[in-house]
Write a structure and sequence with these properties.
N-(1-d-carboxylethyl)-l-norvaline Dehydrogenase, domain 2; alpha/beta; Rossmann fold; 299 residues; 13 helices; globular; three-stranded mixed sheet; 13% strand
Length: 299
Protein backbone atom coordinates (compact mmCIF):
# COMPACT_ATOMS: atom_id res chain seq x y z
CA UNK A 1 0.00 0.00 0.00
CA UNK A 2 1.35 3.42 -0.96
CA UNK A 3 2.10 5.87 1.83
CA UNK A 4 -0.44 8.68 1.87
CA UNK A 5 0.99 12.17 2.24
CA UNK A 6 -0.96 15.38 2.72
CA UNK A 7 0.24 18.68 1.26
CA UNK A 8 -1.38 21.82 2.63
CA UNK A 9 -0.62 24.85 0.48
CA UNK A 10 0.00 24.04 -3.19
CA UNK A 11 1.32 27.35 -4.44
CA UNK A 12 4.69 28.06 -6.07
CA UNK A 13 6.53 25.57 -3.86
CA UNK A 14 3.86 23.22 -2.53
CA UNK A 15 2.51 22.33 -5.98
CA UNK A 16 5.82 21.13 -7.47
CA UNK A 17 6.63 19.30 -4.23
CA UNK A 18 3.29 17.48 -4.41
CA UNK A 19 3.86 16.70 -8.10
CA UNK A 20 7.29 15.29 -7.27
CA UNK A 21 5.83 13.01 -4.62
CA UNK A 22 3.12 11.82 -7.01
CA UNK A 23 5.83 10.98 -9.52
CA UNK A 24 7.71 9.05 -6.85
CA UNK A 25 4.70 6.86 -6.14
CA UNK A 26 3.22 8.44 -3.04
CA UNK A 27 -0.55 8.77 -2.62
CA UNK A 28 -1.06 12.54 -2.36
CA UNK A 29 -3.92 14.47 -0.75
CA UNK A 30 -3.89 18.24 -1.25
CA UNK A 31 -5.59 21.21 0.34
CA UNK A 32 -5.42 24.84 -0.70
CA UNK A 33 -7.80 27.76 -0.26
CA UNK A 34 -7.67 28.20 -4.06
CA UNK A 35 -9.34 25.40 -6.01
CA UNK A 36 -7.50 26.46 -9.17
CA UNK A 37 -4.19 25.63 -7.46
CA UNK A 38 -5.42 22.15 -6.61
CA UNK A 39 -6.79 21.32 -10.09
CA UNK A 40 -3.53 20.31 -11.87
CA UNK A 41 -2.60 17.97 -9.03
CA UNK A 42 -6.03 16.36 -9.04
CA UNK A 43 -5.70 15.83 -12.79
CA UNK A 44 -2.33 14.15 -12.18
CA UNK A 45 -3.80 11.65 -9.74
CA UNK A 46 -3.89 13.47 -6.43
CA UNK A 47 -6.89 13.63 -4.14
CA UNK A 48 -8.48 16.65 -2.49
CA UNK A 49 -9.29 17.20 1.18
CA UNK A 50 -12.03 19.61 2.18
CA UNK A 51 -10.08 20.76 5.25
CA UNK A 52 -6.79 20.16 7.10
CA UNK A 53 -8.54 17.95 9.64
CA UNK A 54 -9.34 15.45 6.85
CA UNK A 55 -5.65 15.24 5.99
CA UNK A 56 -4.83 14.57 9.64
CA UNK A 57 -7.35 11.72 9.66
CA UNK A 58 -6.13 10.02 6.49
CA UNK A 59 -2.40 10.70 6.01
CA UNK A 60 0.73 9.36 7.67
CA UNK A 61 2.60 12.62 7.03
CA UNK A 62 1.61 16.22 6.38
CA UNK A 63 3.63 18.86 4.55
CA UNK A 64 2.67 22.42 5.48
CA UNK A 65 3.81 24.76 2.68
CA UNK A 66 1.86 27.97 3.28
CA UNK A 67 3.10 31.57 3.23
CA UNK A 68 3.52 32.62 6.84
CA UNK A 69 2.93 31.94 10.53
CA UNK A 70 -0.63 33.33 10.46
CA UNK A 71 -1.59 30.78 7.82
CA UNK A 72 0.06 27.96 9.79
CA UNK A 73 -1.92 29.03 12.85
CA UNK A 74 -5.09 28.63 10.80
CA UNK A 75 -3.96 25.24 9.44
CA UNK A 76 -3.34 23.96 12.97
CA UNK A 77 -5.95 25.75 15.05
CA UNK A 78 -8.72 26.73 12.64
CA UNK A 79 -12.26 25.42 12.93
CA UNK A 80 -11.18 22.31 10.97
CA UNK A 81 -7.50 22.40 11.83
CA UNK A 82 -4.94 19.62 11.93
CA UNK A 83 -4.69 19.57 15.72
CA UNK A 84 -8.21 18.22 16.03
CA UNK A 85 -7.20 14.86 14.57
CA UNK A 86 -3.42 14.43 14.69
CA UNK A 87 -2.36 11.00 15.94
CA UNK A 88 0.80 9.70 17.63
CA UNK A 89 3.50 8.90 15.11
CA UNK A 90 2.24 11.13 12.31
CA UNK A 91 4.86 13.36 10.70
CA UNK A 92 4.18 17.09 10.34
CA UNK A 93 6.76 18.98 8.29
CA UNK A 94 6.75 22.78 8.41
CA UNK A 95 8.39 24.10 5.22
CA UNK A 96 7.42 27.79 5.43
CA UNK A 97 9.92 30.55 6.24
CA UNK A 98 8.84 31.83 9.66
CA UNK A 99 10.30 33.24 12.87
CA UNK A 100 12.17 30.73 15.07
CA UNK A 101 9.79 31.36 17.98
CA UNK A 102 6.83 30.48 15.79
CA UNK A 103 8.58 27.33 14.56
CA UNK A 104 9.15 26.25 18.16
CA UNK A 105 5.55 27.04 19.11
CA UNK A 106 4.06 25.06 16.23
CA UNK A 107 6.35 22.09 16.89
CA UNK A 108 5.32 22.05 20.56
CA UNK A 109 1.63 22.05 19.64
CA UNK A 110 2.12 19.10 17.29
CA UNK A 111 4.24 17.19 19.80
CA UNK A 112 1.55 17.61 22.47
CA UNK A 113 -0.69 15.43 20.26
CA UNK A 114 2.01 12.75 20.06
CA UNK A 115 2.76 13.58 16.42
CA UNK A 116 6.31 14.15 15.16
CA UNK A 117 7.16 17.73 14.08
CA UNK A 118 9.97 18.73 11.75
CA UNK A 119 11.11 22.34 11.46
CA UNK A 120 12.16 21.92 7.83
CA UNK A 121 12.31 25.09 5.69
CA UNK A 122 13.31 24.71 2.06
CA UNK A 123 15.37 26.55 -0.54
CA UNK A 124 15.81 26.21 -4.28
CA UNK A 125 12.72 27.48 -6.05
CA UNK A 126 9.87 25.78 -7.94
CA UNK A 127 12.00 24.15 -10.66
CA UNK A 128 14.20 22.38 -8.14
CA UNK A 129 11.17 21.44 -6.06
CA UNK A 130 9.70 19.70 -9.09
CA UNK A 131 12.83 17.59 -9.66
CA UNK A 132 13.53 16.81 -6.01
CA UNK A 133 16.62 19.01 -5.94
CA UNK A 134 15.69 21.25 -3.02
CA UNK A 135 17.94 22.09 -0.10
CA UNK A 136 16.24 21.45 3.23
CA UNK A 137 17.29 22.64 6.69
CA UNK A 138 15.89 20.25 9.29
CA UNK A 139 15.60 20.45 13.07
CA UNK A 140 13.89 17.55 14.83
CA UNK A 141 14.59 14.59 17.10
CA UNK A 142 16.85 11.80 15.88
CA UNK A 143 13.97 9.32 15.80
CA UNK A 144 11.76 11.71 13.83
CA UNK A 145 14.55 12.35 11.33
CA UNK A 146 15.00 8.65 10.66
CA UNK A 147 11.25 8.14 10.33
CA UNK A 148 11.03 10.99 7.81
CA UNK A 149 14.16 10.15 5.82
CA UNK A 150 12.46 8.50 2.80
CA UNK A 151 10.17 11.51 2.40
CA UNK A 152 13.03 13.98 2.79
CA UNK A 153 15.12 12.13 0.23
CA UNK A 154 12.26 12.23 -2.27
CA UNK A 155 12.04 16.01 -1.98
CA UNK A 156 15.58 17.27 -1.42
CA UNK A 157 19.02 16.68 -2.92
CA UNK A 158 20.66 18.19 0.14
CA UNK A 159 19.23 17.64 3.61
CA UNK A 160 21.09 19.64 6.25
CA UNK A 161 20.55 18.49 9.82
CA UNK A 162 20.91 21.70 11.80
CA UNK A 163 19.96 20.41 15.24
CA UNK A 164 17.24 18.82 17.34
CA UNK A 165 15.65 21.98 18.72
CA UNK A 166 12.68 23.34 16.78
CA UNK A 167 13.47 26.85 15.62
CA UNK A 168 17.00 26.12 14.44
CA UNK A 169 15.74 25.19 10.99
CA UNK A 170 13.87 28.50 10.81
CA UNK A 171 16.97 30.32 12.03
CA UNK A 172 19.14 28.74 9.35
CA UNK A 173 16.63 29.63 6.64
CA UNK A 174 16.42 33.24 7.77
CA UNK A 175 20.17 33.84 7.80
CA UNK A 176 20.38 32.14 4.38
CA UNK A 177 17.63 34.35 3.00
CA UNK A 178 19.26 37.41 4.52
CA UNK A 179 22.26 36.59 2.34
CA UNK A 180 20.10 35.84 -0.70
CA UNK A 181 18.12 39.05 -0.43
CA UNK A 182 21.23 41.12 0.17
CA UNK A 183 22.97 39.56 -2.84
CA UNK A 184 19.94 40.26 -5.03
CA UNK A 185 19.57 43.86 -3.84
CA UNK A 186 23.30 44.53 -4.33
CA UNK A 187 23.22 42.86 -7.75
CA UNK A 188 20.21 44.91 -8.79
CA UNK A 189 22.07 48.06 -7.78
CA UNK A 190 25.18 47.02 -9.71
CA UNK A 191 23.06 46.21 -12.77
CA UNK A 192 21.31 49.59 -12.58
CA UNK A 193 24.62 51.44 -12.41
CA UNK A 194 26.11 49.46 -15.29
CA UNK A 195 23.05 49.87 -17.47
CA UNK A 196 22.91 53.62 -16.88
CA UNK A 197 26.60 53.84 -17.78
CA UNK A 198 26.03 52.04 -21.09
CA UNK A 199 26.73 48.36 -20.44
CA UNK A 200 24.70 45.72 -22.27
CA UNK A 201 22.35 43.72 -19.96
CA UNK A 202 23.34 40.32 -21.40
CA UNK A 203 27.03 41.15 -21.12
CA UNK A 204 26.57 42.07 -17.47
CA UNK A 205 24.66 38.86 -16.83
CA UNK A 206 27.48 36.84 -18.42
CA UNK A 207 30.24 38.60 -16.49
CA UNK A 208 28.41 38.50 -13.15
CA UNK A 209 27.83 34.78 -13.63
CA UNK A 210 31.48 34.01 -14.37
CA UNK A 211 33.35 36.42 -12.12
CA UNK A 212 33.85 37.34 -8.49
CA UNK A 213 30.43 39.01 -8.28
CA UNK A 214 28.64 35.72 -8.96
CA UNK A 215 25.76 34.55 -6.75
CA UNK A 216 23.14 31.93 -7.51
CA UNK A 217 20.17 34.18 -6.84
CA UNK A 218 21.52 37.03 -8.97
CA UNK A 219 22.31 34.71 -11.88
CA UNK A 220 18.88 33.12 -11.61
CA UNK A 221 16.89 36.37 -11.37
CA UNK A 222 18.97 38.29 -13.90
CA UNK A 223 18.60 35.36 -16.30
CA UNK A 224 14.81 35.63 -15.98
CA UNK A 225 14.93 39.37 -16.59
CA UNK A 226 17.19 39.24 -19.64
CA UNK A 227 15.14 36.39 -21.14
CA UNK A 228 11.90 38.32 -20.63
CA UNK A 229 10.38 35.53 -18.54
CA UNK A 230 6.76 36.65 -17.91
CA UNK A 231 6.04 34.18 -15.12
CA UNK A 232 5.96 34.87 -11.40
CA UNK A 233 8.19 32.28 -9.75
CA UNK A 234 8.70 33.96 -6.36
CA UNK A 235 6.63 36.96 -5.34
CA UNK A 236 8.42 40.07 -4.13
CA UNK A 237 6.52 40.19 -0.85
CA UNK A 238 7.80 36.73 0.15
CA UNK A 239 11.47 37.71 0.14
CA UNK A 240 10.58 41.09 1.63
CA UNK A 241 8.88 39.23 4.51
CA UNK A 242 11.88 36.93 4.92
CA UNK A 243 14.25 39.89 5.08
CA UNK A 244 12.10 41.54 7.74
CA UNK A 245 12.08 38.37 9.84
CA UNK A 246 15.85 38.03 9.45
CA UNK A 247 16.35 41.57 10.73
CA UNK A 248 14.11 40.85 13.71
CA UNK A 249 16.27 37.81 14.43
CA UNK A 250 19.48 39.86 14.13
CA UNK A 251 18.19 42.45 16.55
CA UNK A 252 16.98 39.81 19.02
CA UNK A 253 20.52 38.44 19.35
CA UNK A 254 22.24 41.83 19.26
CA UNK A 255 23.80 41.12 15.87
CA UNK A 256 24.84 43.56 13.14
CA UNK A 257 22.09 44.59 10.77
CA UNK A 258 23.22 47.58 8.73
CA UNK A 259 23.76 45.76 5.41
CA UNK A 260 20.63 43.65 5.76
CA UNK A 261 18.58 46.68 6.80
CA UNK A 262 19.56 48.54 3.64
CA UNK A 263 18.65 45.57 1.42
CA UNK A 264 15.40 45.04 3.30
CA UNK A 265 14.46 48.68 2.77
CA UNK A 266 15.03 48.25 -0.97
CA UNK A 267 12.60 45.33 -1.11
CA UNK A 268 10.05 47.19 1.00
CA UNK A 269 10.24 50.21 -1.31
CA UNK A 270 9.77 48.06 -4.42
CA UNK A 271 6.78 46.31 -2.86
CA UNK A 272 5.27 49.67 -1.87
CA UNK A 273 5.78 50.89 -5.45
CA UNK A 274 3.31 48.29 -6.71
CA UNK A 275 5.56 45.26 -7.13
CA UNK A 276 4.33 43.32 -4.10
CA UNK A 277 2.98 40.43 -6.17
CA UNK A 278 5.55 40.68 -8.98
CA UNK A 279 8.36 38.17 -9.38
CA UNK A 280 11.23 39.28 -7.17
CA UNK A 281 13.46 39.56 -10.25
CA UNK A 282 11.45 42.73 -10.98
CA UNK A 283 13.60 44.42 -8.33
CA UNK A 284 16.40 44.57 -10.92
CA UNK A 285 14.28 46.33 -13.54
CA UNK A 286 12.73 48.64 -10.94
CA UNK A 287 16.12 49.93 -9.76
CA UNK A 288 17.38 50.23 -13.33
CA UNK A 289 14.38 52.31 -14.36
CA UNK A 290 14.97 54.65 -11.43
CA UNK A 291 18.63 55.21 -12.32
CA UNK A 292 19.41 58.14 -14.61
CA UNK A 293 21.72 57.22 -17.55
CA UNK A 294 24.99 59.06 -17.86
CA UNK A 295 25.82 61.00 -21.02
CA UNK A 296 26.08 58.37 -23.75
CA UNK A 297 24.62 55.72 -21.48
CA UNK A 298 22.05 53.25 -22.74
CA UNK A 299 18.51 52.86 -21.43
Amino acid sequence: MRERIGVIGVGNMGAPMAARLLERGFDIVVRDVRSEAEAPLLAAGGRRAEAPVEIARSCSAVLVVVVDAAQIDDVLNGSQGLLQALRPGQLVLFHSTIAPADAARFAAAVAQRGALPLDAPISGGPARARTGQLSMMVACSDATFERARPLLDALAARVFRVGTQAGLGATMKLVNNLLAGTYLAAGAEAFAIGRAAGLDPQTMADVFGASSGQSWILSDRLGRLVAGDPHTHAQMHILAKDMRLALELARSVGGPDSVGASASATFAAAAAAGLKDADDSALIRWLAERTRPSDGGSR
